[in-house]
Amino acid sequence: LDDNYLKIFFKLIFSVSFIYFFGVLWLGSIIGWDKPIFALGVKPFLLAELFKIIILTLLTKKIFKFRKFI
Predict the structure, then answer these.
(1) Of 17, 29, 14, 47, nearest in space to 37 by CA
(2) What is the rounded CA–CA span in Å between residue 59 and residue 65?
(3) Contacts with 8 (C-beta within 8 Å, 6 or more apart), sequence order
(4) Sign of torsion, CA 5 14 17 64?
(5) Which residues, at least 6 apart from 49, have a Cβ–Cβ distance to it below 8 Å?
(6) pLDDT tens for each residue of 5-42
(7) pLDDT tops 60 at residue 68
(8) Which of 18, 23, 63, 64 sits between 20 and 30 A of 35, alpha carbons compared?
């Protein structure tokens, strides 16, 4: 709770990067490594993912405070 917003942002980026890493490995094994895997499986989703991470970064402290209230 005492983390600043920059730390929270990088923690979220780090955690989501594992999902993308394993997703790219899976997609490469399914469609083949000679295809443009990054352009097909990562690039279309990066902007939306960044938007979700920014929203969650701004709301994280409020969510923890609300959770303690309940």
Answers:
(1) 29
(2) 10
(3) 57, 60
(4) negative
(5) 16
(6) 999 999 999 999 999 999 999 999 999 999 999 999 99
(7) yes
(8) 18
